[in-house]
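Figure S7 source data.
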Amino acid sequence: MRRKLVAGNWKMHGLRAQLPEVEAIASAAAANPSVDAALCLPFTLIHPAAQVAGSLPIGAQDLHEADKGAHTGCISAPMLVEEGATLTIVGHSERRGDQHETSHDAYMKAAAAHRHGLKVILCCGELEAERAAGRAERIVQSQIEKSLPDDADPSWLTIAYEPRWAIGTGKTPTADEIASMHAIIRAKLRMMIGDDKADGIQILYGGSVTGANAAQILALDNVDGALVGGASLTAEKFVPIIEAAASVS
Ligand SMILES: O=C[C@H](O)COP(=O)(O)O
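Tokens for the predicted glyceraldehyde-3-phosphate complex:
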């Protein structure tokens, strides 16, 4: 039985003044032990958040594929570990869009994170035009083919399906569309790494998840949690999503 994971992604939001939100979210997570929760924060908040988060895992949103080197402005896995991170997102669609990252980049970054003991949330998802053209399934399958790490295993890898057009827009796919894509991802994982490992990997949905729609989305087959952006920035908005996950677990 896969546990539900509710992970927040603060993106480029948050100063130390927001650390009380981290503390409040950590308390709520501890009060809902049937569900896993985590927060992926800006690099600058990882260390201070890890000091106040108790058992709530604190993660990053990206990393460089190399451990060190002449890469101005970049952060490596060993640096994240030293700051207290225990997980990281890779391949988020905003990195793919804004920084032109590819699925191969995500593959390399996932490998770097795993080398240093970080858990990984590997993102995939189609653009609106790709869905309109009937190419959503093929695009997502291709992203998984190119980015799934060599030794993918549920002990450290989670997949997040995030249709780009649903991120921060208030638009969500229908329940059937979400369940269908998650089933396609599960089938792809089974083909690539076998049923046992594939069936243990959590597949999260991301894109305009809120306290109002979380329970319905999280109850769908093969939806093992949520990757939440805007609604993860405050305990007031994020805790109801954790509680919704607990209610369907
Ligand atoms: O990583 C999180 C996703 O991009 C979802 O963002 P959102 O919940 O603001 O739509």
